[in-house]
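G., the chain you wanted modeled:
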Amino acid sequence: MIDRSRAWLLSWSALCLVLLAATTTLVATEWQPLWEFDREVTRDAANWTRGHDVLVDVLHVIEVAGDTLAATLISVAVVLLLWFKGHRRAAVYGAIVMLASFGLTQLLKRIFEIDRPEWSVLPEQLTSGSFPSGHSSWITSFAAVLIVLTHMLVRRQGLRRAATTGLVLLCLVVFADRILLARHYPSDVLGGALLSITVALLVLALYSPSPAASRRPRIRSSPACRRRAGTFTWCSTRSRSRTSASSRQSWARWPPRPAGGSRSGISPASRTPAPVRPMPPRSAAPTW
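Predicted structure as tokens:
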């Protein structure tokens, strides 16, 4: 993911932002089809969950593990671990994504103040706004940061795919938890996920967590650049990449051969052969 172009990241970020704006508008205006769908799905899910006591206990553990305090501690631990392991840019990227997602989620909750579903399975009632879901927002931002770090630090493609699949499944489990416990409507979960994905892609497009982004080594110019400039210069990566194959092959002919002469600059016609020294005569064999 980190090797994607900035245009690709910005395009997908803009698409997620459009979907988030559309979802927010439909929720704020209480669009009738979406309103009926949310209530019907949440009510049926809550009625089904009440008949499974073990499932209720498991879902309650998942809820506690993703509340504000636990999410803050986990996020801080990951950022500090990255920082002290030497991945400073990755730590900054993770901190920006998770802080921005949390702040925007709380801001939208206070702006719209959507009521929570009335079929909560657990006796504890939550008073904060329903849209967007804070659990969904945090787990999506957390998974997005870990996916970026996996693609940056893990070389084996099979391990990267396994880690990405596991993180996506973790997000789906938390999404299901919020709906099965009737803590949020499906639109709340969708809004939280879209918000964090938008933030993660936008920050990734503007700030690369790769350590190579902080080091921009100067690259020596190609022979063609040196010939055009007449002196030794430094050329950028773009000028080096645009060097043609013929100019790269001219490296074997550097320095350039003078017109009408050899590499040493002396005309072949003006050269005089070195004198040949005669071999000394072989002395006569000694007599005893």
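The radius of gyration is 34 Å.

Shout if anything looks off.
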